[in-house]
Amino acid sequence: MTITRKVEAARLRDFIESAFRACDMPPENASQMARLMAEADIGGQDGHGVFRLPQYIKRIQAGGLSVDPEISLVSERPATALLDGGNGPGHLVMSRAAKLAIEKAKTCGVAWVGARYSNHAGPAFLYARMPLAEDMIGLYVAVGSANHMPPWGGTDMLLSTNPIAVAIPSNTRPPVILDMATTVAAYGKIKTAADRGQEMPEGWMIDKQGRALTDPSRAGEGLLLPIGGPKGYGLSLIFGLLAGTLNGAAFGADVVDFNADSQSTTNTGHFVIALDIAAFADVGTFKAQVDAIWKEMKSSDRLPGVDEIRLPGERLAATAAERRANGIPIPEALGNRLDSLADRLGIDRL
Amino acid sequence: MTITRKVEAARLRDFIESAFRACDMPPENASQMARLMAEADIGGQDGHGVFRLPQYIKRIQAGGLSVDPEISLVSERPATALLDGGNGPGHLVMSRAAKLAIEKAKTCGVAWVGARYSNHAGPAFLYARMPLAEDMIGLYVAVGSANHMPPWGGTDMLLSTNPIAVAIPSNTRPPVILDMATTVAAYGKIKTAADRGQEMPEGWMIDKQGRALTDPSRAGEGLLLPIGGPKGYGLSLIFGLLAGTLNGAAFGADVVDFNADSQSTTNTGHFVIALDIAAFADVGTFKAQVDAIWKEMKSSDRLPGVDEIRLPGERLAATAAERRANGIPIPEALGNRLDSLADRLGIDRL
Predict the structure, then answer these.
(1) What predicted TM-score, i.e. pTM, was given to this entire model?
(2) Is residue B33 within 8 Å of B24, Cβ to Cβ?
(3) pLDDT tens column, B52-78
(4) Residue A1 confidence (pLDDT)
(5) CATH code for the structural domain at B184-225
(6) What is the mean pLDDT of chain B?
(7) Which CATH code is given to the segment(s) A1-61+314-350?
(8) Which among B297, B307, B310, B314 is the top mutation candidate for probing chain A, defined by the most A β-carbons within 10 Å of its own β-carbon?
(9) Nearest CA of chain A to the CA of B54: how many Å?
């Protein structure tokens, strides 16, 4: 993978914002999208930031994604809500959902806000992280935007990577942020392997005969494997029922492959939970205890050949610090795609 | 494994209740313990039901477990609560927690109730399942009662299997019930393999040099492996912070190995969430949709050699139906242990 340029975060945000504004997205929406998508790149989730811009624009231009969605409240209780995303970008819908969850959790201690008629929202950590600013813990779950996994033992593509993210604040360390697919490999990693002409390790995919599939150019015939076999299948199914079915959103055979289809309404479902630490513990004490757990894990003796023990969220924090200082690397192929997008939209190239 | 007897569920409950009453447990507590522990056996979680009775009794007699705990409210918000379990059995503490969560969720839509100063509670599904009776979804997470897993890349035993259970009701099918450890194998499965003199498959454990460990008699030198490598480690860590640290309960190096130590207060932490389906959807419609998802998964084409696709909770329901009809098989070694327990306590043998 050749890196031909590095761009500053501010420049990346400007570029994304200009692209959306060129598609008639209202300025405040475009600005919010740009900020969140750039955060994905800054955090090192390269498959979920500006990488997705051409696809989002294509969907907007095909009429499959609303640039000015009416996000409405379908139902509400003191600690819950269900939003209808009005077929808007998941970023806007789930930012609204997280904000509402935080407000409700201030009184109730916890809140669970689901959404339907939403769309792909980028990396899960973005929304799990939002409650941290209010000394809350965040959880986020989504129905993935394309089915690449069968039920355990099956071959029909009925399940997605259905990710979960959880963010827990610490005091002097970065927050603990888990952001994981329920499959061994996210589909983006397979696309990256294909781009690079690399073999996949065994355990990522099998073919419909159950044989290991390691050639990423054959990924179209392959089935993603869940973590822990039936356990990851179970997690994906449960998350799909909670983030999709319960919200009246798509799950199972209803899921629209948004890579292949830019027009059909995806009716993507997600949910976010905000949990107020102060409802359970003194916030300062809790954060200090998370620091202590952090230190305890880092100090463990190590297996031969292991340099360092990492906590979830540690690499994200390090990558973000490095990229905020030195810019975000743009691989050549992506840079070329973004250049032609800019030319088509009549905006400055990145 | 030789099965020397099968006992009816009612007889098993009576036996467990008598054993606890012989240890001066108040009748209502003994009856509740018996009901829940027998449910574990009925559901096929053989390592978490009457199998644990000798250990619980040992702990009671050593002064490490209260038979008449004062379960008190430490803090409360409309949708949250933190209970102090008074060092009582986890079964009693988490039944109380689930009841409180259900009450709160009726108004708030969702409730999250944590507990500290609790103890081992048997299988996770028991508590996730409680909200089903009120047309609610249940989630339950616990800090496991002994550390058998290091952080990813490490060798210090700082983490447990920290299980999660989620229960979602259907209409005509059994409820979808996921009940899983964050490790590839629960420690009980390794004990069972050792009892049977069977090799463990590769992938369950490694030794401190990182080599596959397949001899269960060497399990004491081994490290449990998390599902999905760093992902399962991340889940175990996050669940430990949420069920342990946030509640002021033990997590990490503080966890007391309740197999090895019958006296020290374990300060076990758990939490349970009740989520009211009616806050999001029409209950009947939702249950019918879960049926439809059930059918969709079952109907998938299958990999060669696979007879049937199962949903989480399906085997539990089938085992429970069979055992309610035909009795619960008691392996010979367990039967002998229970006989000597009965003799020591002066109660009728099972």
Answers:
(1) 0.97
(2) no
(3) 999 999 999 999 999 999 999 999 999
(4) 62
(5) 3.30.60.50
(6) 96
(7) 1.10.1530.10
(8) B297
(9) 30
CA-CA distance, A77 to A70, in Å (whole number)?
21
Token match 């610090």: residue?
Answer: A321
What would the two tokens of residue B278 be? Answer: 């009616």
What are the residue ranges spanned by the domains of chain B? 1-61+311-350, 69-182+228-299, 184-225
Q: Is the pLDDT of residue A302 over 90?
A: yes
* Inter-chain residue contact A80 with B110, CB threshold 8 Å: yes
Query: What is the distance in angstroms between the Cα of A253 and the nearest Cα belonging to chain B?
Result: 8
Put simply, the answer to whether A238 touches B153 (Cβ < 8 Å) is no
Residues of chain A contacting residue B289, judged by C-beta atoms under 8 Å apart: 245
For domain A72-183+226-299, the question of CATH label 3.20.20.70 is answered with no
Mean pLDDT of chain A: 96
Judged against a pLDDT cut of 70, whether residue B1 lies above it is answered with no
Q: How many CB pairs under 8 A join A and B?
A: 248
Nearest Cα of chain A lies from the Cα of B26 at a distance, in angstroms, of 30
pLDDT score recorded for residue A220: 87
